[in-house]
Structures are given as structure tokens and as C-alpha cells.
Amino acid sequence: MQGKKGVKKIPMRKCVGCNEMKPKRELVRVVKNKEGEISLDLTGRKAGRGAYLCPKVECLQAARKNHGLERAFSCRIPDEIYDGMENELKQDE
Ligand SMILES: [Zn+2]
């Protein structure tokens, strides 16, 4: 006889844009590497500290406005980095 059903826990992460908890695999990781460079991790394989965003331009723009990413990485993020990530997200949509 089997006991309790094995309920698999889905790893949840918070989007730094809209601040909603979502399953990790529905989010896109933003990574800060050893060099302090920030980029989108669309493959999920980049090394470094990560923060999570919905794969939507709106959430990236919200994160830009509320400084959620800068708080997550405790550093300033230049406009060109945001612009670059925005373009990448647009291409991905
Ligand atoms: Zn979001």
C-alpha cells in the first residue's frame, strides 16, 4: 500500500517586474556574471547570480521602473543593458 501521494513541488520564483510568483520554468532568468555584466539567460545555463522575469517586455519595463533588478543585483544597470534585454525579449516573443 502506498501512503501519501508524492506531490511534486513546483519551484516558484518571483518576477521582479510584476512581483507575482510564477513557476520557475515560465520565467526567464536574468544573470549577473563574475564580471558584473547583466544579461538575459534564455538558455538557462549561464553562471552567476540570477533574478527572474516573465518573458514579457512589460515586465522588463516594470522592473526598469521599480528598480527590481538593480535591487536583486545591488548595482546600477545602464540604459543600454535594459535596451539590449528588451530587444532580446522582443525577438523571443
Ligand atoms: Zn512579471
Write structural notes for this entry:
- The structure is a single chain.
- A three-stranded antiparallel β-sheet has the order 4-3-5. The protein has a two-stranded antiparallel sheet with strand order 1-2.
- The chain is of the alpha+beta class.
- A hairpin with a 6-residue loop joins strand 1 and strand 2.
- The protein has three helices and five strands.
- The chain is 32% helix and 22% strand.
- It is globular and about 50 Å long.
- The structure holds zinc ion.
- The site of zinc ion has 6 residues, from loops.
Shape: globular
**Which structural class matches the secondary elements?**
alpha+beta
**Bound compounds:** zinc ion
Quaternary state reads single chain
> How confident overall, as mean pLDDT?
92
Count of β-strands: 5
Helix and strand run: EEEEEHHH
Task: Please state how the strands of the largest beta sheet are arranged side by side.
Answer: 4-3-5
Helix segment tally = 3
What does the main sheet amount to?
3 strands, antiparallel
- Portion of residues within helices: 25-40%
What would you report as the Rg, rounded to the nearest angstrom? 15 Å
Which blocks of ≥5 consecutive residues have pLDDT under 50? none
Distance between the termini: 47 Å
List the SSEs and their pairings.
Blueprint: E1 12-14, E2 21-23, E3 28-32, E4 38-41, E5 49-53, H1 57-66, H2 68-73, H3 79-92
Antiparallel strand pairs: 1-2, 3-4, 3-5
The structure holds zinc ion (ZN).
